[in-house]
Amino acid sequence: MLIRTLGPASAWRLHPELRACLPARLDAFDLAEVSDAVRALPFTIGREDPRLFDARPEMRRTQRPAPPDVPLLSCTDHAAYASAAQKQAVHAALTAPPAGVLLATLPTGAGKSLVTQLLALEPLRRGRARLVLCVVPTVALAIDQHRAALPHFERMGARQRVAYLAGDDQDAASRADLLDRVRRGSVSLLFTAPERLVRGPLADAVLSCVREQGLAALVVDEAHLVAGWGGRFRPAFQQVKEQRERLLAAAPEPFPTVLLSATVTPQTADILRDLFAPHQTPFLRVDARALRAEPDWVTHRYEDRDERLREAVHVLRHLPRPAIAYTTSVEDAEALYDALRAGPLGLRRVALFTGETRGDQRARIVDEWRADELDLVVATSAFGLGVDKPDVRAVVHATMPEGLDRFYQEAGRGGRDGHATLSCVLWTPDDRDLARRNAFINVITTDKALARWSAMSHSRDPAPGEITTLDLRCRPAYAGSQAEERRSEGTVGWNLATLLLFERAGALRVTGIDTRQDMADIVWRWPGDRTALEQAVDTQRLAEQEQERRKPRRDAPDAGAESAGVYGRAPGRTLRHSLGGALRPVRGLSGGPD
C-alpha cells in the first residue's frame, strides 16, 4: 500500500527478507520487480477502460482559517475556526433570537458539529448550563458526535454532562441513570434519535427537565432528512416539529432551534420553514454551500453483480486507505465484506457496518475507525452521515445511490482534511433499477392518500377550525394495502405520512400525536370543497416528487461563484490528469432518466 500510495513514478529497494516473500503478493497488488526494486504497475478500473490513479494526496482545500474568539478559545482546544463560514454559523447560533429558527448550510466536513458543541459549552462556561438537544438520524452519528464532544467537556471538567441515547446498545441500568440525569438537569448536551425524542421515557424526561430549567437550544442535524425521510418511512422526523412546540409551551422562556445540513435544496428550505417557522416566527439562514474541491470522480458500469463484486474487490485492494465501501443492501455489503477477507491475502483491518449491526459492535467499530485501527469499512447508509474521520482517501459505491443527497453525503466522507480523495461508483443496470424504485417506493399516491384520509375521518371533512382526534390504526379499503404496509412502518406509519402530506398542502395542522394509543389530534384548516382539497394534495405530492427528480440539478451552487462566505469555488479537477481520459459523468443517481 505504501508503494502504491507513492504512485507509479517511484521505485523502491526492499530488504532481502521482504523480497523473499514478494512473489506471491506482486500480482495481487499490481506490483512488478524492476532489478532490485519494486514499482507499482498502472492501476485499472474496469476491463475496457484502463485508468491510472495517482493516489498522492495533494492539498486541495483553498479556504482559510478564521480568527478565534472567546467561546472557541475558552471552550475548546481549537486555535482557529476552520473557515469564515463555520465562524459565521457559530455566531448566528449563539445569537439566534428566542423561539427563532436558524437554518445553517455548510459543506460536508466544514465542522457543523462545532456549532452544536458551542451551543452547550458556552452557557456551561458562563455558569448557566442548560440542556441542548441534538436530534441525529443514525446511531453511528450519535456515537461519533458523542465521542467528538467528549474532549471539550473533559477540558471543562464536565465529562458527565454530554451523553447520547439513540439505539439499544445501552443496558437498562445505564438508560435509567441517563434519564434520571436528564430530569435533574445534569446533562448539557444530549444526542438522540427523533423516535426517542417524540415518544417514550426520554420524551417524558426531557419535558420534565424543560418545565423546571428550560432548554438552551434544539438542534436538528442533517435537517434535510426532515423533508425526505420525515414524510415517508421515518415520520418521527416531522414529529420533531410538534415536540418542539410542546417544549416551547412548557419552557419558562423560549429557546432557539438550529437546523444543520450540507444539502438543502430551495424546496427543502421551504418545507423546513413551513414546518418550524410558521406565521411570524423569525427564520434566519447561513448559506455557505460549496462544491467540494477535494474529490476526483469516476464511475464504471458492469453488466452483472458478480462482475462488479470481483472488480470492487480489485479496486478496494489498490485504492489508498482509509476507505469506505458503500452498498444499498445488507446482502451486498456482507458479500463484499466476505470477498475482501477471503483467501491467504484477505484483508483483516476491515469491518462490516449495516442496519443489522448490534449496538455494542457499532460503538466498537466507530471507536476503531477513529483510532486508525481499521483501514476499510464496508457499510450501508447506516454508517456515514456525519461520521467524521479527516483522512479518508477513497469512497467506493458498489451500488448506485437512489439520490444525489445520499451520494454527495457519503462521498463527502472523503477528503475532510482538505487533501485529494477519490469517489468511485461501480454500478450495474440492476442497481439503476433498484435506485429508481427506492427513490419513489415510499411516495404515496393521491388516490391512496385520500382513501386513508377517508378511513381516518370516516368520510367526513371537519369544519374549518374544528379540532378532531383521528385513529391512526384505521385501514383504507383499497386492495394491496397489506403488501404496501409491510414495506414501511405499517398502517400507523402510512396514515401519519398522509396527515403530514395534508399538513404540507395546507389542509390541516397536526397538534398532537399519542404514540401509545396511536391517535392524532388535528385542526382542520381547509375552507374549500372536496375537489379543491384533492387538487391541493395532488399538487403538493407532485411538487415533492418533482423535487426528488430535480435534486441533482437544483442543489448545486453556481460553479463559477467566488468564495465570499456564501458559495465556494467550482469542484476539483476531474480524473483526466491521472486516468488518461475525460471524466465519465455520474448519471441516473436520482432515479431519473439516464
CATH first level of the largest domain: Alpha Beta
CATH architecture of the largest domain: 3-Layer(aba) Sandwich
CATH homologous superfamily grouping of the largest domain: P-loop containing nucleotide triphosphate hydrolases
Oligomer: single chain
What's the total helix number?
23
Question: Quick check: average pLDDT?
Answer: 78
For the largest sheet, list the strands in their spatial order.
Answer: 6-7-5-8-9-4-10
Strand content: 15-25%
Fraction of residues in H or I helices: 40-55%
* Structural class computed from helices and strand pairing: alpha/beta
Largest sheet geometry: 7 strands, parallel
Key features of this structure:
7-stranded parallel sheet, 23 helices, Rossmann fold, 594 residues
Write a concise synopsis of the structure shown.
This protein is α/β, with parallel strands linked by helices.
Would you spell out the secondary-structure blueprint of this structure?
Layout: H1 2-5, E1 11-13, H2 16-20, H3 23-26, E2 31-34, E3 37-40, H4 70-75, H5 84-94, E4 101-105, H6 112-125, E5 131-135, H7 139-155, E6 162-165, H8 172-183, E7 189-192, H9 194-198, H10 201-213, E8 215-220, H11 224-228, H12 236-250, E9 257-261, H13 266-276, E10 283-287, E11 295-301, H14 305-318, E12 323-326, H15 330-341, E13 350-353, H16 359-370, E14 376-379, E15 394-397, H17 404-411, E16 421-427, H18 429-440, H19 446-457, E17 467-471, H20 481-487, H21 490-504, E18 508-514, E19 519-524, H22 530-554, H23 576-579
Parallel strand pairs: 4-9, 4-10, 5-7, 5-8, 6-7, 8-9, 11-16, 12-14, 12-15, 13-14, 15-16
Antiparallel strand pairs: 1-3, 2-3, 17-19, 18-19
Helix pairs in contact: 5-6, 6-7, 7-16, 8-10, 14-15, 19-21, 20-21
